[in-house]
What does this fold into?
Amino acid sequence: MNSPLICMTVTGTTLAEDVALVHKYEKYIDLVELRVDYLTEDEQLSIRKFPAMINKPCILTIRRDIDGGKFSSGEFSRTNLFARALSFANENKSKNFAYVDFEEDYNIPSIQDAAQAFGIRIIRSCHDMKKPILNLRERCEKMRRTGYEIPKIAFMPENLSDVLNMFEEGSKITDYEHIFCAMGNVGFPSRILSSLSNSFLSFVSPEEVIQNTSAIGHIDPVSINNIYNFHKINHDTTLYGIAGWPLLKTGSPEIHNKGYQQQNLNAVYLPVRAPGISETIEFADKMNIKGMSVTIPHKETVMPFLTETSQEVIQIGACNTIVKKDNGWAGYNTDAPGFRRALEEFLDGEKIKRKKVAVIGAGGAAKAIVYALKQMGARVCIFNRTISSAKLLAEKYGFEYCALDPSNVEILDEYSNLIVQTTSVGMTTDRPVEHDDPIWFYDFRGNERIFDIVYKPAITPIMQRAAEAGCKVCNGYKMLEYQAYEQYKLFTGKDYPVNS
It folds into this structure.
């Protein structure tokens, strides 16, 4: 089957707004879906003009609220809008809608006949916004009332097994065009790997209005092209990914995919989101994923699934990289060398040996960082809300530990030559500052060094507060880069093309 198309859904309130978005992104997309249900009532009366206003084939969609849309004025009004949009067909077909989306239970023969008479292809769709649809091939056969129609099924998966089923079902449909979409964060692979489900297209949304479709899993048209190289993905593409949950923000795909593109490797790296590592491993096995980065909360829970582990993983007790081998998954830890290299750059020649360092947190990332600090000769105190976790990690290396609590501010001050923040606190900034700053109770003097492993946002609340006091601060992006370079070599056997 042909390579999937990229369809940009426009959800502006006016046609002018939608036209401007199409013109801005037209080099990144193959066709456009006009969501009439987002337009104001006055604008809806002029939708017939839209195809002539853009230079791309267009899908006409008036999505009902029960199917995740915004149209709530009833079927009589919606049918009138369909009729208005499809009537008075232009001899120049590019000035007409190329496709129209009718739900599987929409049956108005006059409207459907008009669409077919004017050469407008019907997309016959069904949506389940709450649960998965599993019998996809059988459902497609029932939905295809003529060989002219394209069945579309969009559903909300409960887990990666539902997404895997979509790929398995779609791969067997090769004799007619169909559209499969697994929605939400768990369904993200269905957007990038549309070619593996033989889907006719994948939907994206412009950055300016992506909040309208982010809940169902749309990404922007620039990212699907520039980061994921969508049109180059095929059945021979080698798959890599990053496992985590909820994994809302990650810069790893951009780093890894840039390397593949620069070295002309037919490979793609994408997020695989799941709350449990067991379903991630099953998905990776069935999808033939060759290697994965592993992040929160799976760095420790992944270890029972490994048949081979590096010495660093054994010593650290956490794994952030897995590679598929003949006998199963091999585990590695690239966080430690990535952190050490980034820290040495940050310190700019200053030695950390025998310096007192405070490590905030005791999770998987902290384990790798404490391991690296031990190698560098630092004297460390681990601060964590759950003191038993801090105790377990500290005693492994002969370090100090205490509760992350205002009552221990004097101990934190003693170990403040360098403060390393290893938790996910600070990734969000829409809450009061004290909840996004793990040491909100500490008053910076101005001579501390702050290394926060969070990199999105680039300036976290703890970094901002420290910088305002005169401290030198650093986020975790360089650590991300350097550990990713190590992963890249484990995945591909090649050095990352840093200077390309």
Notes: The chain has a mean pLDDT of 95.
